[in-house]
Amino acid sequence: MTTLDFRKYKNENKPISMITCYDSWSAAIIEETDIDCILVGDSLAMTMHGYDSTLPANTELMALHTAAVRRGAPNGFIIGDMPFLSFRKGLVPAMEAVEKIMRAGANAVKLEGYAGHGDIISHIVDSGVPVMGHIGLTPQSVHQLGGYKVQGKSDEKARELMEEAVALEEAGCFAVVLECVPAPIGQAISQKLTIPTIGIGAGNGCDGQVLVLQDMLGLNNKFQPKFVRTYMKGFETIKTALNEYDRTVKDRSFPAEEESYS
Ligand SMILES: Nc1nc(=O)c2c([nH]1)NC[C@@H]1CN(c3ccc(C(=O)N[C@@H](CCC(=O)O)C(=O)O)cc3)CN21
Ligand SMILES: CC(C)C(=O)C(=O)O
Ligand SMILES: [Mg+2]
After folding, report:
1. Which CA distances in Å does 228 have to 64, 164, 217?
2. How far apart are CA 220 and CA 230, in angstroms?
3. Which CATH class is domain 3-231?
4. Which of 41, 75, 149, 227 is the 20 to 30 Å CA partner of 135?
5. What is the mean pLDDT of residues 5-21?
6. ipTM value
7. Which residues are catalytic?
8. Which sites bind Mg(2+) (predicted)?
9. Alpha helices by DSSP H, 104-154
C-alpha cells in the first residue's frame, strides 16, 4: 500500500480496510492479513492506558507506539495520529511532532479538524509527508463537542462538514476519516471528494472503514457504540484461557514432563 493506492482503490471502487494497532505483537498478526493499512490512533490513550479520553496522549507516547507497530509490521502502511494540541502550537512545534512520528516509522500522519490549521496541513504535505484528514466526531474536541455524539445532524452542520472535507482535499490530504456522521452525509462527502473517505460510524457509502482493534475483537467489554461490530468474543476467550492456565497450575498438571527440562 502507498498513498497512490488510496486513490487507485477509490477509482476502482475497491473498499479500503484500516484497523488501529498500538503494539508489536498485534502488528505482526495484522501484517499477515489482507487489511490495507494500520492506524496508530491516539485512542491508545483509552484502549492501552486506561484514560477516559484521548487527551493524555502526547507525541512521545505516539512515537513509542508507532515504533513498536513498525517493528511488528515492517512492511505495513502505518498512519500515526498527531496527538492533542501537537499541531496547534505553531508551525515549528507541529513539524517537530510530525518528524518524531515519521522517524518512529509512520508512512503518514493524521490530524483532527481543519479550521485554524489548514496552513499547517499544507505545510506538512509540501514537506513530503502524507496527511490523512479527520472530521465529524473529533475526539480531541470532546469537551467542546459536549461528549462523543454523532455530528452533522442538521443541514447546516452537514454543509459545514462537506466544506471541511473539500478544504482538506484541496490542502493536499490523501484521504480523510469521517467519524460518527449520518450515513447519507458520509455517502455525499464520499461522492463529492476524489480522495477516499475512511468511515467509522459513517455508513456504508464511505470508500473504506476503520475500527479499533480491541473493539472488533470484543476485548472492550465496556465500549459498545452502535457502529462497532465484534468479530470475536475476545474478552471471554482470553478469560477462559487464563482460567485454564490457573487451573492447570493449581492442579499441578502444568508443567507436564514435555514442558520440563531433563
Ligand atoms: N475503543 C475505542 N473505540 C473507538 O472507536 C474510539 C475510541 N476508543 N476512542 C476515541 C474515539 C471515541 N469514539 C467514540 C466514543 C463514544 C461514542 C458513542 O458513545 N456514540 C454514541 C452516539 C450517541 C449519539 O447518537 O449521538 C452511540 O451510542 O453509538 C462514539 C465514538 C470513537 N473512538
Ligand atoms: C478512531 C480512529 C479514527 C482514531 O482516530 C483513533 O483510533 O485514534
Ligand atoms: Mg485518533
Report:
1. 27, 25, 10
2. 10
3. alpha beta
4. 75
5. 98
6. 0.98
7. 179
8. 42, 81, 112
9. 118-126, 142-145
- Ligand 2 centroid, distance to 252 Cα (angstroms): 44
Average pLDDT over residues 123-132: 98
Distance CA 30, CA 150 (A): 29
Q: Which atom of ligand 1 is nearest to the CA of 223?
A: 1
pTM: 0.98
Write down the domain spans for the chain.
3-231, 236-261
- DSSP letter string over 1-48? --HHHHHHHHHTT-PEEEEE--SHHHHHHHHTSS--EEEE-TTHHHHT
pLDDT at 222: 81
Number of Cβ within 10 Å of residue 177's Cβ equals: 27
- Ligand 2 atom nearest 198 alpha carbon: 3
Taking residue 97's Cβ as centre, other Cβ atoms within 10 Å add up to 25
Kindly report the length of the chain.
Answer: 262
The alpha-carbon radius of gyration of the chain (Å, integer) is 20
Specify the amino acid at residue 191: Q
Alpha-carbon gap, residue 23 to 66, rounded angstroms: 8
pLDDT for residue 221: 84
At 32-62, the pLDDT tens digits run: 999 999 999 999 999 999 999 999 999 999 9
Give the number of the ligand closest to the Cα of residue 52: 1
Residue 237 pLDDT more than 90?
Answer: yes
Rounded distance, CA 55 to CA 139, Å?
A: 8
pLDDT digits (tens, 9 = 90+) for 248-257: 999 999 999 9
C-alpha 114/C-alpha 128 separation (Å) is 19
